[in-house]
UniProtKB/TrEMBL annotation:
PROSITE patterns: GST_CTER, GST_NTER. PANTHER family: GLUTATHIONE S-TRANSFERASE. GO terms for biological process: glutathione metabolic process. One of its GO terms (molecular function) is glutathione transferase activity. It comes from the Eukaryota. This is Glutathione S-transferase. CDD domains: GST_N_Sigma_like (cd03039). Residues 99-233 form the GST C-terminal domain. Residues 16-93 form the GST N-terminal domain. InterPro entries: Glutathione-S-Trfase_C-like, Glutathione-S-Trfase_C_sf, Glutathione_S-Trfase, Glutathione_S-Trfase_N, GST_C, GST_superfamily, Thioredoxin-like_sf.
Length: 233
């Protein structure tokens, strides 16, 4: 890992090599991986095993992952990483500084996606880390089921309507992908994978614009290659 003597980054366009350090899951690291893919920037995808984390954690700046290593420098916070990757490949249009209005729209949508993720977070953490929600021990499965079912029934329709109106027949902020898509797509895909108890993988089927969007992103050659290659790992 980098340290106090790390050299500062002086030029985004000439920076590198890039190394993303995260656990062997999608979660917070996936949006950065997808940004690299869409930007056409090679990067090392360093997967940290959970049993390695206890040793690694004290060496990190904030005690968390992901970390983006750029040469001898370290960057933290996935949203900052997304913008950095986009700036490293301005021709990608992932965050077009030449169009400030579009950048504001991208930031607006990423804020909306964060609202959606924040509403889901207690439903997720109640099973894995109940103490974060004030529970002294493991939570009864009936409580988890009630929380997650309520989210799917009450919160998901509202946000799927917001996202559907923004996406239409294209992407989150226009005819080409941006970093907002790098954030939204893996979150939506998560709900279709059947990895969350009491959340049926069919939960997005009532929203045809959303399911069409997922298929559209998956059909992008860099994204298709990414998931094809990782399916073989």
């Amino acid at each position: 890992m980098g340290g106090q003597n790390a050299k500062p980054i002086t030029s985004v366009s000439s920076a590198g090599p890039f190394r993303l350090v995260y656990f062997d899951v999608e979660a917070a690291g996936e949006k950065v991986r997808l940004a690299f893919c869409l930007a056409g920037i090679p990067f090392e995808d360093k997967r940290v095993k959970f049993e390695e984390w206890e040793t690694l954690k004290p060496k990190t700046k904030y005690g968390q992952l992901p970390i983006l290593q750029v040469g001898d420098e370290e960057l933290y916070q996935s949203t900052a990483m997304l913008k950095y990757v986009a700036l490293a490949a301005p021709e990608s249009g992932l965050y077009p500084l030449s169009d400030p209005v579009k950048c504001v729209r991208i930031d607006e949508m990423m804020g909306l996606i964060a609202d959606f993720q924040n509403l889901w977070a207690p439903c997720f953490y109640v099973a894995m880390y109940p103490e974060r929600l004030g529970h002294a021990g493991a939570v009864d499965k009936a409580v988890i089921e009630k929380m997650r079912t309520a989210f799917v029934e009450n919160e998901m329709p509202k946000f799927m309507d917001f996202f559907s109106k923004a996406i239409g027949s294209s992407f989150v902020c226009g005819d080409t992908p941006t970093i907002a898509d790098c954030v939204l797509f893996p979150q939506l895909r998560y709900f279709t994978r059947g990895v969350a108890d009491f959340v049926p993988p069919t939960c997005l089927e009532p929203y045809p614009l959303i399911t069409a969007y997922i298929d559209r992103v998956l059909s992008l050659e860099p994204i298709k290659k990414w998931y094809d290659d990782n399916a073989k790992m």
